[in-house]
Amino acid sequence: MSDDEISNDGYDQALDAIENGEPYALECPEGHQSMPPRQVCPECGASDLEEVEIPLSGELLSYNVTYVPTPDFGDDVPFVLGVAEFDDVRLTGRVQADAEDVEVGSAVEVGLGESETTGRPLVTFDLA
Amino acid sequence: MASAHIAGVGMTEFGEFPERTGRDLFGEAGGTAIEDAGIDREEIDALYVGNFMGELSENQGHMGPLMAKAVGIDAPATRIESACASGGMAVRQAVKDVRNGEADVVLVGGVERMHNMGTTGATGGLSVAADDLWEIRQGITFPGAYALMAQRYFAVHGGDREDLAHVAVKNHANAANNPLAQYQTEISVEKVLDAPPVALPMGLFDSSPITDGAAATVLVSEAYAEEHGLETPVAITGTGQGTDNLALAERDSMVWTPATEDAGRRAYEDAGISKDDVDFLEVHDCFTIAEVLAIEGLGFYEEGEGITAAREGETAADGELPVNLSGGLKAKGHPVGATGVAQISEMTKLFRGDHVNSDAVEDAEVGLTHNAGGTVASAVVHVLEVAE
């Protein structure tokens, strides 16, 4: 992350945890999981949220092959973007593989990478 | 509950006009609607204007007062923003004002300037309808988000790009003779499948275009229409709204849209109708898969069965349930903040008999508009009926 980037409490720490191989979600007493930052559980409004570990490995629910990017990803295209499920939370991230090797249901491992265009951190999925 | 009667409608040509400002576009559409209604400008009690990304496209916020003066009025004026559902949400506020007696005459419109941003700029501008932290920073685009929904749909329910191509072919056919539509050309399934990729499985012709344009409608109370002898052959008899998690990944399902389901159910209840009473639809087909999810979410098809509707001709102009006779967002164009109002304008003309496709719905009595924001984190549905 560049030095002049404004930090985002909750989000930055969650990315650091992913980078360290110890990803977590927030969980309420009802067992609903969500990604930070949260003041309350988005499902039930409970305010006593705890950090709970989520697995590094998940299942790819869907993916696309993006050719037309936003300005922050101009040098990154084409790239594969996916949504993967880890216990009860789902994350959107860059699938670090060729599209022909990817399918819905693929096992993936979450990590942290960066945009080739801006150097900003982003969630990555490697095929397991 | 009381209805909001439609006294007049207006729309600019939808298309590529990068040099036209928002105020210029809105001034034209609003002026056309006021003229169509045959009312004096001083009679307007309130203005609502839908706009999504004026700050990004032309460094312009605070559009309420700007657009009031663009049409020459000084009524209380407010901008409404709900991404691509901004226009439909503006209509909903106008309907509420007329119903609750706050206003007798409301001008409601929407406007978007997009081409001056360029393709990458517009893609970035539109992306802010997603979740910044967990989606935009990961590189999501809206074609990309709907591509995720389409790919998941194929995996869960079956179907393929060729099924979706029929949605685009149908909507282009509907727009072919619509003089206000951006694409007045028919296309083939092969052309859709061979088009350049945007975010696979969404190709260029699975996607609604980048569009500049504005639309407007004058709503009046029934009492006002009677008192002033206004012709109001169509009324908005029901309105409903739904909300969901902003980020697609936070939903329980990537192929079911609860916001659409909720908005539809609430609108049906509000109008005192069931889906079986509906004769035709204008739905939010920003991408081909979006039309499929809309007709399922609104209850016209079971989950997983809407994908064959266009291929089978069921939603064609001569089908059982015509969908997007205007050409839809896909071919009419999608100036995002204007779209929800344009749906009302086009459906009103379809009912009145002065739309190029009016013959397809000659005996229709009930129509439904569906406008969605983001990956359907917002949805708004209106029921339109022939006024008695």
Automatic annotation (TrEMBL), chain A:
<dbReference type="InterPro" id="IPR012340">
    <property type="entry name" value="NA-bd_OB-fold"/>
</dbReference>
<feature type="domain" description="ChsH2 C-terminal OB-fold">
    <location>
        <begin position="51"/>
        <end position="110"/>
    </location>
</feature>
<protein>
    <submittedName>
        <fullName>OB-fold domain and Zn-ribbon containing protein,possible acyl-CoA-binding protein</fullName>
    </submittedName>
</protein>
<dbReference type="Pfam" id="PF01796">
    <property type="entry name" value="OB_ChsH2_C"/>
</dbReference>
<dbReference type="InterPro" id="IPR002878">
    <property type="entry name" value="ChsH2_C"/>
</dbReference>
<dbReference type="InterPro" id="IPR052513">
    <property type="entry name" value="Thioester_dehydratase-like"/>
</dbReference>
From TrEMBL, chain B:
<dbReference type="InterPro" id="IPR002155">
    <property type="entry name" value="Thiolase"/>
</dbReference>
<dbReference type="GO" id="GO:0003985">
    <property type="term" value="F:acetyl-CoA C-acetyltransferase activity"/>
</dbReference>
<keyword id="KW-0808">Transferase</keyword>
<dbReference type="Pfam" id="PF22691">
    <property type="entry name" value="Thiolase_C_1"/>
</dbReference>
<dbReference type="GO" id="GO:0008299">
    <property type="term" value="P:isoprenoid biosynthetic process"/>
</dbReference>
<protein>
    <submittedName>
        <fullName>Acetyl-CoA acetyltransferase</fullName>
        <ecNumber>2.3.1.16</ecNumber>
        <ecNumber>2.3.1.9</ecNumber>
    </submittedName>
</protein>
<dbReference type="InterPro" id="IPR055140">
    <property type="entry name" value="Thiolase_C_2"/>
</dbReference>
<dbReference type="Pfam" id="PF00108">
    <property type="entry name" value="Thiolase_N"/>
</dbReference>
<dbReference type="InterPro" id="IPR020616">
    <property type="entry name" value="Thiolase_N"/>
</dbReference>
<feature type="domain" description="Thiolase C-terminal">
    <location>
        <begin position="240"/>
        <end position="385"/>
    </location>
</feature>
<keyword id="KW-0012">Acyltransferase</keyword>
<dbReference type="InterPro" id="IPR016039">
    <property type="entry name" value="Thiolase-like"/>
</dbReference>
<keyword id="KW-0414">Isoprene biosynthesis</keyword>
<feature type="domain" description="Thiolase N-terminal">
    <location>
        <begin position="6"/>
        <end position="187"/>
    </location>
</feature>
